[in-house]
Amino acid sequence: MKPNNNETMYWTESILEQFPLVLVATSRGLCYAGAGTEASNEFIQWAKKHLPSHTLVRDDKQLRPYTEEFAAYERGDLTMFTLPLDYYGTAFQRSVWTALHAIPYGQTCSYTELAVQLQRPDAVRAVSTAIGANPILIAVPCHRVIGKNGALTGYRGGLEMKAALLELEKES
């Protein structure tokens, strides 16, 4: 999807578990959720690449519905995010990100299983790369994808956060 010129991109900071979180939305929906100490810098770089004509505005009130959903998720009161998402990626990436929503809350699947579900069994690396490019952590649940042997594998928010999210979902 190509951005309209001179649109606004709203952002806010929050905390999920003990992890700093940056949430960013356009008028169409949440387009970025990043975690960790470098999340603010990462989202600015992401925005320059994907939405260069947008103006960045910090607006905690505008993002309140999103922060409330993330808080409900953290409490175990929300198992599926309902607010709109605004994806920016290739058609293949978007198909992978959409498929991530089919992984049930509290469960995991491997990269290989996901590739098979997408009817692309030989594209495990491409699926893995698309998952790694997912700009909307947690709401697009890439943390539910693990290695074929059950091991935790890369996560933009860090393996500590991935383990914490899987544990939170297991306890709920």
Describe this structure in words.
- By secondary structure, the chain is α/β, with parallel strands linked by helices.
- It has two domains: 8-75; 91-169, Arc Repressor Mutant, subunit A, CATH 1.10.10.10.
- It has helices at 39-50, 64-75, 91-100, 111-117, 124-132, 159-171, and strands at residues 8-16, 19-26, 29-35, 55-58, 109-110, 145-146.
- Strand 2 (19-26) and strand 3 form a beta hairpin.
- It is globular, with a radius of gyration of 16 Å.
- The model has no long low-confidence stretch (mean pLDDT 92).
Jot down its keywords.
172 residues; alpha/beta; 2 domains; two-stranded parallel ribbon; 37% helix; globular
Short structural description:
The protein has 172 residues and is of the alpha/beta class.
